[in-house]
Specification:
Layout: H1 3-24, E1 42-44, H2 45-66, H3 76-96, E2 103-105, H4 106-131, H5 138-141, H6 144-168, H7 192-208, H8 211-238
Antiparallel strand pairs: 1-2
The chain binds NADP nicotinamide-adenine-dinucleotide phosphate (NAP).
NADP nicotinamide-adenine-dinucleotide phosphate binds next to helix 6, helix 7 and helix 8.
């Protein structure tokens, strides 16, 4: 595939992200606390997370190992960061979340599988076949956008991991209830885990400095801002004493 063809696909892909972004303000994705049995067949929550995220992990690992140029430059750093994130999201995160009787609609899992195949396909193919070895040389390693992007990526990942850990820790074994989370960034926003994820992929896009990585950052923002708003409104409805000054996802802003 030529770069121009990929750019054309990316134009459609980013347009789709904007459509999904607007739609998600009207339709709540029915998993986790918003789960619903009105979306047809369902499957176990933990299994759902595993099969949803697995394509991203497998495809990027494939491109790293079998890609034409993956090992010819420092592009492996981008693959390594991606694979590190998705090893957590695919294997460790589902093992850590507390088992509940909540189910996930198969339709949600399928749409996430399609998203992950396209997203990892575009990013992996670009990095392994089109960009390297020209883009990711020593000059890239010493560029400001590499260092700044890497620091932002790490900060986002740490915020995401710490927030997920605090949320998972709110329930004791066997408990299924929800509580108002407190401490860390929860004093400012309802969903620091989603905030961290947005920061993380923004940092990745700055590091990688290419259109496919930018498309992933846009998709993450498009998905997670409405989801954070849904979480925020859900907290306000469920807990009359929910802190009034807490924002949904961006401290002091939104
Ligand atoms: N890159 C992307 O586009 C994307 C998309 C979606 C999610 N994600 C990531 O996937 C992770 C999960 O997302 P999510 O929206 O499902 O997160 P979430 O609703 O915040 O839930 C995270 C975990 O904590 C539990 N939990 C949440 N709030 C709680 C509370 N107040 N009291 C007790 N337990 C609570 C949830 O249990 P329940 O399941 O029982 O609610 C779940 O096990 C996040 O790290 C997010 O960044 C990424």
């Amino acid at each position: 595939m030529k770069t121009e063809t990929l750019e054309y696909i990316l134009f459609i892909w980013i347009t789709l992200a904007l459509i999904v972004h607007i739609t998600m303000f009207y339709v709540t994705a029915p998993f986790g606390r918003h789960t619903s049995d009105k979306w047809g067949l369902t499957l176990n929550n933990k299994v759902g997370w595993f099969i949803m995220e697995l394509p991203s992990l497998l495809m990027m690992s494939y491109f790293l190992v079998f890609g034409t140029y993956s090992m010819d430059s420092y592009v492996w750093i981008l693959f390594a960061l991606w694979i590190f994130h998705y090893t957590n999201r695919t294997i460790i995160y589902p093992l850590r979340i507390k088992p509940t009787d909540k189910k996930m609609p198969v339709s949600i899992a399928l749409s996430a599988i399609i998203f992950n195949i396209v997203n990892a396909g575009i990013n992996g193919y670009f990095l392994a076949e089109l960009a390297a070895p020209n883009n990711y040389n020593l000059e890239w390693l010493s560029s400001p956008h590499f260092t700044i992007g890497l620091l932002i990526f790490i900060a986002g990942m740490l915020i995401n991991l710490k927030s997920d850990t605090l949320l998972i820790g709110l329930r004791k074994k066997g408990e299924k209830n929800y509580q108002i989370p407190k401490g860390f960034l929860f004093d400012y926003i309802s969903s620091p885990n989603l905030f961290g994820e947005i920061i993380e992929w923004t940092g990745f896009a700055i590091m990688a400095w290419n259109l496919p990585a930018l498309s992933f950052a846009i998709w993450t923002f498009a998905n997670l801002v409405p989801r954070a708003l849904n979480h925020h409104n859900w907290y306000k409805e469920k807990f009359p004493d929910y802190p009034k000054n807490r924002k949904a996802v961006f401290p002091f802003l939104f």
